[in-house]
Structures are given as structure tokens and as C-alpha cells.
Amino acid sequence: MIHHVTAPETWAKAVEDDTFTESTLGRSLEDEGFIHCCEEDQLGFVLTNFYAGVDHDLVLLTIDPALLTAPLVREVGNPETGEQFPHIYGALNPSAVVATELLHPPHTGQGNVGSR
Predict the structure, then answer these.
(1) How far apart are CA 6 and CA 77, in angstroms?
(2) Quick one: three-class SS letters along 31-73?
(3) Would residue 90 be called left, alpha or beta, if left means φ above 0 and alpha means ψ between -120 and 50 degrees?
(4) Could you give the 3-state DSSP secondary structure of residue 95?
């Protein structure tokens, strides 16, 4: 399983439209060419380093890579360490999302998960 973080209203629209093209908070697939995701063990780092200053709820998407219709590629996200992150090249089909969790601020790791 891999994860992606998004705004609740963005996810609601994605479910309604049956397509999701948000690469990162405030960025589109068109801007970056891929959707940023992370592995389970990278989630705390991502929340702390990229979402700590976000003062509204977020939705954590849990994605089953076997259900994706767009290619998933693991690429080096940090050249200094060689750590790889998963990227979805193309729109995320909402049917690949097997669980969602509401995250409440402060977004500083995995201890802030709210209700499902």
C-alpha cells in the first residue's frame, strides 16, 4: 500500500468526477507530471516536513498499487540518501483508494489520525 495526502474538498471532487489529478497540496498533475505518494514508513516524515504548517483537516488516501490504472514508478526523491518514493504517472483512479482517514492539525507525524 502507498499513501497520498489531500484536502477534503479535493478528494470529494475526485470521487464525484471519478478522477484525481492533484500531485501535492496545491499542485496539479499537469504541473508536475506525476502524483506524489509515499510508503507507510515515509508517512511521518512527509506529514512533518510538508504539512506541519497546514491549519486545516487533510485526508490520507491509502492506495492499493494493484488497482491503479496509471503506472506506478519508484524514483529517488532524495539524491543525498537515495531514498525512493512512489510516483503515479497519470491520474489516480479513485477506485484504487482502499481507505481514507481524516487528519487533524497539527500535521506532525502519524499520531494525529482522526476518524475514518
Answers:
(1) 19
(2) HHCCEECEEHHHHHHHHHHHCCCCCCCEEEEEECHHHCCCCEE
(3) left
(4) helix
- Indicate which CATH number applies to the domain containing 39: 3.20.170.20
Q: In the numeric block, which cell numbers belong to residue 106?
A: 497539527
Measured CA distances, 76 to 3, 34, 53, 83 (Å)? 17, 14, 25, 5
Q: How many domains does the chain have?
A: 1
Q: What is the pLDDT along the chain (116 residues), one digit of tens a residue?
A: 999 999 999 999 999 999 999 998 879 999 999 999 999 999 998 999 889 999 999 999 999 999 999 999 999 877 888 899 999 999 999 999 999 999 999 887 654 443 32
Domain that holds residue 79: 2-112
